[in-house]
Amino acid sequence: MGKFMTVFKFHLREAITSKSFIIGNLITLIIIVGIFGFSHFSSKESKDKVAFINSTTYQTNIKQLNKGLDSVKLVSGEKSSIGKLKQQVKAGDLDGIVEVKEKNGSPALSYTYKSFADQELVAILTQKVQHIGINKTITDSKVDPNVATKLLAPIPVESIALKDTTGTVGIVYIFVFLMYLLILGRGQMIANTITAEKASRVMEIMIPKVKPIYMMYGKILVQLVIGLADIVVMILGFLISYSLGWFNGKQFSLLGFHIDLSNLTPFIIVCFIIYFILGFLLYAIGYAAVGAVVSRTEDLSSVSFPIILCIMAAFFVGMTSIFSPESTLVTVCSYIPITSPIVTFSRILSGEAGYMEMGITIVILLASIALLNYAANRIYLNGVMNYSGKVKFKDVVQMAQKH
Question: For this UniProt entry, which residues form the secretion signal (predicted)?
Answer without folding.
Answer: none
